[in-house]
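Notes from the 1:1 (GR / supervisor)

We went over the backlog. Supervisor wanted to see one worked example end to end before approving the batch request, so GR pasted a single chain during the call. The sequence is below; no edits were made to it. Supervisor asked that the structure be written out right there so they could see what the output format looks like.
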Amino acid sequence: MELIASISQILIATSVAFVAWKQYQLSGRQAYLDRERLKHELFGRRYDFINDTSFFVYRNWDFDVLSSFDAHIAKAKLLFPKSAVGHLTQMRYAAEKHVQRMVKPASNNNETPEERIERIEESLVQALNSDYKIFISSIEYLITIEDYNA
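Structure output shown during the call:
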């Protein structure tokens, strides 16, 4: 009888250890899946953010658009490192400078107000497009580094 009791204790201890080991393996796999899910969500949010940023690059700017771009930059601070957010801030300052130029009265009397605004908007799109390309390249570099470290 004692032999059966001692064998049953060993079997119970072995089964408990086996279940604990399986749970440990499962928790490791679950942690890996959670990390991958978070990376996927971050990628999705960054992708949506970049699409929204391209919307800002190719539109007519005014003070309302500048304020909505400020909110857009605040969202970027949660998704990207400071270096990438710095490029967006440069885009914002370039846009603000161009918007202020559009509001100022024309110093050149040879061009109509429509021509002047069109010229300023063209130079703004060129400036923003350049900063946007730098922003995208910094994001591509960031994603490459994150993939390398993963």
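Supervisor's comment: The chain is about 90% helix and 0% strand.
Batch request approved.
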